[in-house]
Amino acid sequence: MKKRFNFKSTAVLSTALLSTTLFLVGCSGDSDEAKTAQAPVAEQNTMAVKQSEPVAAPKEALQPAPAPVEEAVAEVEEKIEEIKEEAAAVVAAAPSGEKAYATCIGCHGAQAEGGVGPRLSNQSPEDIVAKLEKYKAGEQMGPMTAMMAPMATPLSTEDMQAIADYVTNL
Structure pTM? Predict the structure, then answer.
């Protein structure tokens, strides 16, 4: 069976990293400190005191992304790898029916109680296997065929039976 990863956490981490990078790069531009550094010169008699010419403060050049951002990227990538390894270990330790059913939980519920998809816990294992085989064959089974066909396609008959046995024993 192919290894499936939850890309939701990867997308969230990538979005957070991108937002942080954009924030830091946006903050590295010119500051208002240089503009406020010059105090207004009080109006005086120009005959008595010679006024010096105001000197413009040098503008800071945009700098490349600081090293802490690169370090944060490396830390996030390490954390992603750790999560992938933990997920793989959990999946490897689970019984085969439970492993195969892991992709079904989102629609059919952790206890096969239903949700977006129908309730499976009240169906016989034979019915579940027969429906999965029809989805795998590409038969139109109802409005959710477009979602179920790609899910059933990689399943072997043994996987289908393991899922059916697991679901009916919940």
Answer: 0.45
